[in-house]
Automatic annotation (TrEMBL):
InterPro entries in alphabetical order: AAA+_ATPase, ABC_Ni/Peptide_Import, ABC_transporter-like_ATP-bd, ABC_transporter-like_CS, Oligopep_ABC_C, P-loop_NTPase
UniProt KW Nucleotide-binding keyword: yes
SUPFAM superfamilies reported for this sequence: P-loop containing nucleoside triphosphate hydrolases (SSF52540)
Keywords attached to this entry: ATP-binding, Cell membrane, Membrane, Nucleotide-binding, Transport
Keyword Repeat in annotation: no
Designated name of the protein: Oligopeptide transport system ATP-binding protein
Top-level taxonomy: Bacteria, Bacillati, Bacillota, Bacilli, Bacillales
Length: 336
C-alpha cells in the first residue's frame, strides 16, 4: 500500500451523474457515472474532445452549474465530507478558500474597470477580513511575485487590458491562490496562449503544486499538455471515463481505441503534418447516444458485440482502468 492510499483523498468523486433539462425536453446526461480521486499534491488531468463533459464535471465539483444543470446521482467528498449536502453559503465559503478555479479566458473573469491590485485585494479580504488595508496590499503584491510577475508593484497598478494574455492568466492564478486553496481546478488555462507562454504557465502550476502540495485537476483537450503536467489521467468520452491511468501507463500502454486515436492525432516535435490522423467522425449527440459502446461508430476496432454491449469501466491492472470490451492488453484489436 502506498502512502497516498493510507489517507483520505483530498477529493473523491463517486458515481457522479449531472444532467441538463430544458423545458419540455427529455433531460440529457452530460456527466455519466464519473468516479475518481485527487490526492494532496497530485495533478489529475481530464482529457477529451469538446463536449465530452470535462467542464461540467469541474463545475459540478465547484458548485457552479448553470441553470438547468443538476447533479442527480453520486457524491463528492472533500476531505472526507460530502459537499453535496452543504448549504449554498457553505459551498461559497469552500470556493475561494478550499478550492479555486482558473479558466481559459481570464478577461471574462477579471473586472475591466478595476486595477489588478484591487481585484487581488478583494479576493484576499474574503478570507482575511480583519487585515489592514496596507497588509492586504502587501499580500497582493506578494501573490503577484509568487506567480512570477516581473515588476509586481507596477503591474498591480494596471488595468487588465494593459496586460498580455499570459500576464492576465498569472493574475487569475494569483487571485485563485488568495485563499490558499488545497484544490485548484484549471479548465483549459493555456489554450488561448502561445506555446512559450503556455509552457511558462504549466511550469508555474507544477511549481505551486509541488511547493504548496495543492491538488490540481487540469482540464485539457491537448494530450501534449497532459504529458507535460499530469501524474494521473482520466480520458473522457461522451460523459464517461473511458480510460484512467498514470501518465506513464497511459502513454506507454494505452488501452482504449479512443485514447489511441487521440495519440495518433497528437503532434510531436518530429511528426510530419501528413502523419497525423484525426479521429474520424464526430462525438455523439448526447441526447441520442448509440446503444452499445458510445465510441462504436468511430472505432476502427469495433466488432458486432460493441453494437449492443455497454462496456463497464474495469481494472486491467492496478491503477489502470478501461471501458472497452476489446482493450489492447487482451490482444483482440484488429483495425477494420
Ligand atoms: N447549459 C447547458 N445546457 C445544456 N447542455 C449543456 C450546457 N452546458 C453544457 N452542456 C452540454 O454538456 C456537454 C458537456 O459539456 P462540457 O462543457 O463539459 O464539455 P467539455 O468536455 O468541457 O468541452 P469543451 O472542451 O468544449 O469545453 C456538452 O454536450 C454540452 O452541449
Amino acid at each position: 500500500m502506498t502512502n497516498n492510499e493510507q489517507h483520505t483523498p483530498l477529493l473523491s468523486v463517486d458515481h457522479l451523474v449531472t444532467e441538463f433539462s430544458a423545458k419540455g425536453n427529455k433531460s440529457i446526461t452530460v456527466v455519466d457515472d464519473v468516479s475518481f480521486t485527487v490526492n494532496p499534491g497530485e495533478i489529475v488531468a481530464i482529457v477529451g474532445e469538446s463536449g465530452s463533459g470535462k467542464s461540467i464535471t469541474s463545475q459540478s465539483i465547484m458548485g457552479l452549474l448553470k441553470s438547468g444543470g443538476s447533479i442527480t446521482n453520486g457524491s463528492i467528498h472533500y476531505q472526507g465530507s460530502n459537499i453535496l449536502t452543504l448549504s449554498k453559503k457553505e459551498r461559497r465559503q469552500l470556493r475561494g478558500k478550499e478550492m479555486s478555479m482558473i479558466f481559459q479566458e481570464p478577461m471574462s473573469s477579471l473586472n475591466p474597470m478595476l486595477r489588478i491590485k484591487s481585484q487581488i485585494a478583494e479576493a484576499l479580504r474574503i478570507n482575511q477580513p480583519s487585515k489592514s488595508k496596507r497588509e492586504t496590499m502587501d499580500n497582493a503584491i506578494d501573490l503577484l511575485k509568487q506567480v512570477e510577475i516581473p515588476d509586481a508593484e507596477a503591474v498591480a497598478n494596471r488595468f487588465p487590458h494593459q496586460l498580455s494574455g499570459g500576464m492576465r492568466q498569472r493574475v487569475m492564478i494569483a487571485i485563485a491562490l488568495a485563499g490558499d486553496p488545497k484544490l485548484l481546478i484549471a479548465d483549459e488555462p493555456t489554450t488561448a496562449l502561445d506555446v512559450t507562454t503556455q509552457a511558462q504557465i504549466l511550469a508555474l502550476i507544477k511549481d505551486l503544486n509541488k511547493r504548496n502540495g495543492t491538488g490540481v485537476i487540469f482540464i485539457t483537450h491537448d494530450l501534449s499538455v497532459v504529458a507535460d503536467i499530469a501524474d494521473r489521467v482520466l480520458v473522457m468520452y461522451a460523459g464517461k471515463i473511458v480510460e484512467s491511468a498514470t501518465v506513464y501507463d497511459l502513454f506507454e500502454h494505452p488501452q482504449h481505441p479512443y485514447t489511441i486515436g487521440l495519440m495518433k492525432a497528437m503532434p510531436t516535435l518530429d511528426s510530419q503534418v501528413e502523419e497525423l490522423e484525426p479521429i474520424s467522425g464526430n462525438a455523439p449527440n448526447l441526447a441520442n447516444k448509440p446503444e452499445g459502446c458510445a465510441f462504436y461508430p468511430r472505432c476502427p476496432f469495433a466488432t458486432e458485440a460493441c453494437l449492443t454491449a455497454v462496456p463497464e469501466l474495469r481494472t486491467l491492472e492496478k491503477g489502470h482502468d478501461v471501458r472497452c470490451i476489446h482493450p489492447v492488453k487482451e490482444g483482440v484489436l484488429h483495425e477494420k
